[in-house]
Amino acid sequence: MNNELNDIIDSYYDVLGITPNRTRYSEQVQCRAALMSAMRQFETTTSIGKAFNVDHSTVVYHTSKHEANMNSWLGYDRKFDIANKLCNETLRYKTIHGKLKSVQIEIRRLKTIENKLIEHIENRKHLLNE
After folding, report:
1. How far is residue 103's CA from residue 98's CA, in Å, rounded to a whole number?
2. pLDDT values of the chain reduced to their tens digit, one per residue, 130 residues
3. Residue 12, Cβ neighbours under 10 Å: how many?
4. d(Cα 22, Cα 13) in Å, to the nearest integer?
5. What domains sit in the chain, N to C, each tagged with a CATH number?
6. Helix H or strand E encompassing 9
7. Closest to 35 in 3D by CA, of 59, 4, 3
8. pTM for the whole thing?
9. Buried b or exposed e, range 33-57, using 16+ CB within 10 angstroms
10. Structural contact between residues 28 and 51, judged by C-beta atoms closer than 8 angstroms
């Protein structure tokens, strides 16, 4: 998953025309905060933190300030919209695919149970007929 997150990070900064760095300049912090908040819909704070090479608590902090940033930090909303679109394009598909895989595994498990029950019923019928 980290490769996908890194691809999103790269695409995001390309779209914005900004070279990412780890400084505390407002634009850099704003970019990171917006993208972390967009990713949080799909990923854990730990995996996002790894992709950004920061502790998960940094992700928690930025996501906790998201609503306030949307309302008061000039330019943040535009950056979040861009980040959100990139995340939706990439991570939503991955999430749906993961859920589908889980459902398929559950179906196989239930089929196995069904077959065992059928076998058990057939054995009981056979015993009763003897």
Report:
1. 9
2. 578 899 999 999 999 999 999 999 999 999 999 999 999 999 999 999 999 999 999 999 999 999 999 999 999 999 999 999 999 988 877 778 778 888 999 999 999 999 999 999 998 888 877 7
3. 23
4. 13
5. 2-129 (1.10.1750.10)
6. helix 2-16
7. 59
8. 0.73
9. bbbbbbbbebbebebbbbbbebeee
10. no
